[in-house]
Amino acid sequence: MKTLYIEDLEKIRKSAQAALLLREQSDSDNSDESCGLACGTPHLQLLCCGGTGCKASNSHKIVENLQKVIEDNGIADKVEVVTTGCFGFCEKGPIVKVIPDNTFYTQVTPEDAEEIVKSHIIGGKRVERLLYVDPKTDKHVSDSKHMDFYRKQLRIALRNCGLIDPENIEDYIARDGYMALANALTKQTPEEVIDIMKKSGLRGRGGAGFPTGMKWGFARTYQAEKKYVVCNADEGDPGAFMDRSIMEGDPHSVIEAMMICGYCIGSNNGLIYIRAEYPLAVHRLRVAIKQARELGLLGSNIFGTDFSFDIEIRYGAGAFVCGEETALIHSMEGKRGEPTLKPPFPAESGYMGYPTNVNNVETLANVPIILTKGADWFSSIGTEKSKGTKVFALAGKINNVGLIEVPMGTTLREIIYDIGGGVKNGKKFKAVQTGGPSGGLLTEKHLDTPIDYESLTAAGSMMGSGGMIVMDEDDCMVSVAKFYLEFTCEESCGKCTPCRIGNKRLLEILTRITEGKGTMEDLETLKSLGETIKDTALCGLGQTSPNPVLSSLNNFYDEYVEHVKKHICRAGQCKALLTYTISPEKCKGCGACKKNCPSDAIMGDVRKPHVINPYKCIRCGMCKSRCKFDAIQVF
Amino acid sequence: MAKEIKLACNVIEQVEAICDKHGNNPGELINILHEAQSLHGYLPEEMQRIIANKLGIPAQKVYGVVTFYSFFTMTPKGKHPISVCLGTACYVRGSERLLDEIKRVLNIEVGETTPDGKFSLDCLRCVGACGLAPVVMIGEKVYGRLQISEVRKILDEVAAND
Amino acid sequence: MEEKKIQLTIDRHVVEVNPDMTLLEAAKTIGIEIPTLCHIDLKGTCVQNKPASCRLCVVEVEGRRNLAPACATKCTPGMVVYTNSARVIRARKTIAELILSDHPNDCLTCPKCSNCELQRLVMRLNIREMPFNGGEQSVRKNELTVAIKRNMDKCIYCRRCESICNNVQSVGVLGAVRRGFNTTIAPTFDKMFTDTNCTYCGQCVAVCPVGALTERDYTDQLMRDITDPDKVVVAQPAPAIRYALGEEFGMEPGTVVTGKLATALRDLGFDYVFDTDFGADLTIMEEGAEILSRLQRHLDGDKTVKLPIMTSCCPAWVNFYEHEFPDLLDYPSSAKSPGQMFGAIAKTYWAEKMGIPREKLVVVSIMPCLAKKFECARDEFKVDGNPDVDYSISTRELARLIKRANIRFEQLPDSDFDSPLGESTGAGAIFAASGGVMEAALRTVYEVHTGKTLPHINFEQVRGLEEGIREATIDLNGFELKVCVAHTLSNARKIMDRLRAGKLDYHVVEVMACPGGCIGGAGQPYHHGNIEILKARQRAVYQEDEGKKLRKSHENPDIQKLYAEFLGKPMSEKAHHLLHTSYHDKSIH
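YS: structure for the whole thing
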């Protein structure tokens, strides 16, 4: 195996930079002029999102079609199609971006390829109908820089997503990739690097927010013949997909960071524990590892030093609890993913009993750029105790679903209303859930809180891995709490009593309440049992599992009381509390409801008002969805 | 009574080869199970015993692992496995009602397979296509922004394309 | 090296302890007994389960966000701990209530009633209501085998049985399956014990804190037989019974109750009260002869002779090698266990002498063991379907019978066993402890082989409780006899793996499946994790031996008479037919 020296890396960077420069410059240019071969643009690039979301909408077909049209028109030497990682704006995917004029096409279909190439690439004329329409002004916006979705974002962990080809290591190197590693190995001691990490203030992005530099420092102090660097890519929070996007869009940043960590703690072995449900991310990581090995970046005597490192991939198999680091380690050892008590911490005794450092994907993605730009640069971003940025997966009842990255300290209001474009369909904002099953429900009154680890915890939620689900007036808070409890009960490993039985009992009480069978005493029990579970459960999953219940009780107590005392679900979600009736004034007797009723609960003659038999009605809502005259009423 | 289905010789050989490839290392159990399941579609008892023997661990340990992780299954899936995403984003956009409708149309519960073996129904947590919520996967294909009213049509189409 | 002590405060008391101590242990040093449930630690042995999962031992530590499990939290200097604050009590109570909400409510009729650790805990926590009630699990299975009763509805997921079955016995039959609320502790593929590698060692029963795993009870059948006028019922209590039975009646652990035992058995209505110790002496005669014969062949240069010869008294160990080492079945001695030898002799030699027809004679063994129940039912030990030993009851079952019969055991006068199958030597007595069979065999083998009287009758090297494998070399007229004693099946597995790999150079190996040998058997009064109880029983074993007039099996006059009148000599054709057995491949593929 040949050795790659720092000078060789420089050479690759220089030669690869041209193509990337075009993309980087277009991102900073502010020209409204569209480009095209007809306008004299010598060289164009088409960036097409190849993330899981856009691929589900056939983005790979778009790439194929674009390439075919380009070849058919004989312009392949002037126009390049690049599959990139996620742009983040999933709501409007699939996305195709044109370089150098930075045109941002949304919701592109494979059939649009021909028009994009002929009208825009060749003719220099943008395809207006594919441009984003600003909902506030109703005007087309051609450039992502002018979209509210991107304006308040600061992309550090996602710096390369949507910009580089994740399957081309040279793209990454052109963006200073592996330079931080090269510098660390050749010019810095492990202690110096750990010191930079400590000064930067970077904290774990997987949930608990433990300072990364300190974690590395601990792992370094333990002496052993072997040590392990583990990347936790078992993103289990339903509704969070930032780690997946980073691995799909910028896998080398994770690899480089693992190597830096290995150098710091004195480990030569890297393991990536990844969900088997992420085939694309696995593929991209495999390609990246292979390319890094081929270049001599992974292997022995890296950059001519005595540091060696290699990475293996281990699969998860569908267990949320394996996000907990001791459970993850047991899973990698081929065992049931049951957490064990800390201490001993993995830094002392982890994988196969060896000192092990576990970091999450997003945490790692921050590492190389911190070394490149310095601890001061990073710590200048964010709040006093939470530095840098955080990626959130914004979803739910929001206009702009997608992956966003904002500086710590950004308020929920900025995220939901400016970046997210507000609540969908003009409905009223009710709550936002952060932190997934471990987090809580925040309300209107929390909207102006600057987000960081401490403020979210103080508000009864937590940072978690960064899921952020917006809910509107149609969402029932009891049902949402029940939804999370169902998840926890299903995902609990079953080892400790409070989590195994306690959460089950919480869920049973919530179910009773949603069925109108709850009592006021139940509300007391929810609170006291929830607090005991938090106080006594063995691992992080159990200790945080009652958060959705406790925070919703705290913030939406009235709604619970309504369920219990008045048997009303104001959001109309709790089926057992609903009554479906047909307004005789509005009903035209068309029979659509009767025909579609799965339980034969609707009676009535043609052209005469129909009625619903409440005993047969299963409250599925089918009639309401089928009625063209808005005659079905739900109370 | 569970029927004793004997594995074909070549399947046994292939599973043993998978174990050998991983050095018969018990630490590789989960990777081995992944490969064995993708080879055979599911992990019957006999296959777990073969793996346990190769790795030199009690079959109980293999069984404990198989039943712990939701990705592994001991029953054959339908020809078209349906997975309804019950991730939070899909949930708040109505995936539970979609699930109810699929159960009603196919007349099976979650975890079951239709008697003709065409469809099996499962839930999963987040395929990561939250922009398309609610999402249902049938085989490898992702159906996004699915409406209750479209369910029957799509299932009929899939069944008809066999 | 003396470790530096650290100071901490527990419930306002300042404590000085070693820094490697847990809060649970530290509290114990000043008489604070924090309740536990999943935790068990038979100190010094491998019998341990420390998952910190029941959470009943939680305590409040100043400066800590949540409560800490005392069983697994190490002491640190300056720690301020509260084991009984309102917060702790509330949490502890809630957890116990949660466990109760997933546990049947049939304490009064539960076999574990009054011996149940959950029951004691609930009493201590003064729980008078059941605030939680909800669905119970449906996937749990129950089973009644010849030896063990499984009632998994009562399981509280302490996972002690799993630790024992895997880490101590290396059998790997029991373990957790599924997850969350649906977790169950189950045998492989949720099958019945009978379809697995289960050896019926019963150590899962010995550590189960509740009534999920108990012995199969034969006491009612025994009372039916005793009251049947057509039947002659004979008792044979195993060596280990007399060192432990007293505990059931509040006597100090380690009290030897041989005389009271004989009286109690008679009071219960047994027609004849003999002693398995007699069978033990007989075993030494046969097994000793087999050892000598294989050794002689070895000394004569016979390369085909199978060495080491392994003891075969322990029925769980027999099951273990039949299941897992079918390729090595010609290493263990073909000698039957003492109990089965006794049965075979009782139903032939003695029955003929007394003129009792076989079908009217009921031989009942009282054993510290649950695997013996399985052993009695083996086809090899039946004549035309009639077993040599009809069935076996455990020490605990005997105690229950005595209590039910209104007998004040601790006040009983002593009496002797009946003759002729009641006479025994110290060699038979020490069968109860790990290393005992070996020591008894060595006493006889030495004297028979060398023709000399033993200068020191005690072989201290093979005694012990804590080391899992012990070795010794004995000089037999210049020949160095290498012996090895192992207890628990995980240690046996180490020996067998070495044998299979051709790396074992012992001549004789003793294996007992239970920790400490039969004194730690699964049928004994529950030790509840207290190693001192096993130590006391072990001391009693050697004390009994020391007090015996005869301490070598071949000196037992009734044994000598048996050979003279009936068997001829050890390993004679008749002896072979009655006192030896064969083993079968029972591996599961």
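YS: worth flagging: Strands of chain B lie at 80-85, 119-124, 136-138, 141-143.
IM: good catch. Also Residues 80-160 of chain B form a domain with the Glutaredoxin fold (CATH 3.40.30.10).
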